[in-house]
Design brief:
Layout lengths: L9 E8 L10 E11 L10 E14 L1 E17 L8 E2 L2 E2 L19 E18 L2 E17 L6 H4 L6 E12 L3 E9 L7 E6 L4
Antiparallel strand pairs: 1-2, 2-3, 3-4, 4-7, 5-6, 7-8, 8-9, 9-10, 10-11
Length: about 210
């Protein structure tokens, strides 16, 4: 239903964080396991569902502190009757598509109760410079994103098909960091789903 509604949710999350920096890490790990439950209570709260999300993130220097490999793997599953908009999202943002999921794929194009995707990035810090009292670092990124959505488990042949069904995007971008507190990223992604390219200018790394 697309009629006005309310949703009451309870969330529990476990996290392991060994990153050397929360904003722009160069090494360490950040893993989260999140469980969400929403009760159905008559017409006031019509959507009853449960959601489980596992997200693993790793960061590692490659040869020199200026080159960082960053990887993220996400699995998200919903059981029950969730609102329609939750079928395209994870962590309140788009999953397979959009600026924080699989870049190059249109946001909210693919919906399903089960989502899995990965982001792989090679981040290079090119050089540092100063403007007045502010210190900046300019960097570049090459990336590969890929993911898949299923209507539910077990998968439906009619809705999900029988092939691999991966949606993916490849591309590169620039990063402008002010000290260790602020990052601006500009990404350009190509995907078979893009028309013709996905272009993103936002604050913060994708993860």
């Amino acid at each position: 239903s697309l009629s006005p509604h309310n949703v009451a949710r309870t969330e529990v999350m476990l996290a392991l964080d060994t990153r050397d920096n929360e904003l722009s890490p160069t090494r360490g790990q950040f893993h989260t396991l999140q469980f969400r439950i929403s009760p159905r209570i008559g017409d006031a709260l019509p959507f009853g569902y449960r959601q489980l999300n596992l997200t693993a993130r790793v960061f590692h220097t490659v040869g020199t502190p200026r080159v960082i490999f960053a990887g993220r793997l996400v699995g998200d599953a919903i059981q029950g009757s969730a609102p329609f908009y939750e079928l395209a999202r994870f962590e309140e943002t788009n999953a397979v598509g959009g600026q924080k999921g699989v870049r190059g794929v249109l946001a909210q194009r693919y919906h399903g109760k089960v989502k899995a995707f990965t982001n792989l990035e090679l981040r290079v810090r090119l050089f540092r410079f100063s403007l007045g009292r502010r210190h900046y670092t300019l960097g570049s990124v090459a990336f590969f994103d890929a993911g898949r959505v299923w209507s539910e488990l077990p998968a439906s042949r009619a809705l999900d098909g029988t092939g691999l069904g991966l949606k993916y995007g490849v591309g590169g971008g620039l990063r402008l960091m002010e000290g260790s507190t602020f990052v601006v990223r500009a990404d350009v992604a190509w995907s078979p789903d893009a028309r013709p390219l996905g272009i993103y200018l936002v604050a913060g790394h994708i993860f």
